[in-house]
Amino acid sequence: MLRPRIIPCLLVHDSGLVKTVNFKSPKYVGDPINAVKIFNEKEADELMVLDIDATSRGLEPNYALIKKLAAECRMPLCYGGGVTSVAQAVKIISLGVEKVSISSAAVENPNIVKDLAEAVGKQSVVVVLDVIKRKGLFSKGYELSTRNNTRTYKIDPISFAQKMVALGAGEIVINFVDNDGVMGGYDVEYSSTIKSQINVPVTFLGGAGNYEHLSALIDQCGIVGAAAGSLFVFKGKYRAVLISYPTPEQKDIICNNLKKNY
């Protein structure tokens, strides 16, 4: 039986592991290689690593770091940050990474998704969509943002996600900017709407603050990726740095209602 994936998301800034709130004020929380070792021991389902500097600074992907991450990682690894060409994606895959994610590049040049899918296979192409709530008194729903939320686009995320799938994306990640680091829960209702209209695997990121939030997402959406950053690197109200991940028994509880509902 297919199961939901519970995915730690690690943010890299100046080669260090950081955590942000609403994409701002990166706080150093440790060494990414050490974090990977711990998640290996805890048998995480998958790992997502996003370099938050590369695109905004116009930098190449950090191949030296990627090589170290891939060599250490014993679970499927998705890497994103600074990927703007097929050649870069091919090189990242050659270093041992299973999936390459793009975000800003997909919004600014959608056809790159088709090129990437042809070069590395659909299963290795992940499109991360940073979504923000529309501003304004009578505004509803979400729109897209790019480059660490410095640019916004009045584009419907669901329609755009469907376009990405049509072009060859093998997975869509919905990253809720407004919920980043807040730990108040996912937007479960919107997540469910997206899941029902996308025919490839979907992962949701932004808002998880406890295992009940993971469970609520899975109860509502079924077999999805439940990704989180703060939940797996902080502990307690003072946000002390402590890397954690659910045990197999805890994962069974988190996914408890899946058989009942699906």
UniProtKB/TrEMBL annotation:
Catalysed transformations (reactions): 5-[(5-phospho-1-deoxy-D-ribulos-1-ylimino)methylamino]-1-(5-phospho-beta-D-ribosyl)imidazole-4-carboxamide + L-glutamine = D-erythro-1-(imidazol-4-yl)glycerol 3-phosphate + 5-amino-1-(5-phospho-beta-D-ribosyl)imidazole-4-carboxamide + L-glutamate + H(+)
EC top class named in words: lyase
Pfam families membership: His_biosynth (PF00977)
Keywords from the UniProt entry: Amino-acid biosynthesis, Histidine biosynthesis, Lyase
Domain of life: Bacteria
GO biological process: L-histidine biosynthetic process
GO molecular function ontology, one term from the record: lyase activity
CDD domains: HisF
EC code(s) of this entry: 4.3.2.10
Pathway assigned in UniProt: Amino-acid biosynthesis; L-histidine biosynthesis; L-histidine from 5-phospho-alpha-D-ribose 1-diphosphate: step 5/9
Assembly, per entry: Heterodimer of HisH and HisF.
Family, similarity comment: Belongs to the HisA/HisF family.
Its biological purpose: IGPS catalyzes the conversion of PRFAR and glutamine to IGP, AICAR and glutamate. The HisF subunit catalyzes the cyclization activity that produces IGP and AICAR from PRFAR using the ammonia provided by the HisH subunit.
UniProt-recorded name of the protein: imidazole glycerol-phosphate synthase
Source species taxonomy: Bacteria, Pseudomonadati, Pseudomonadota, Gammaproteobacteria, Enterobacterales
Gene: wbhZ
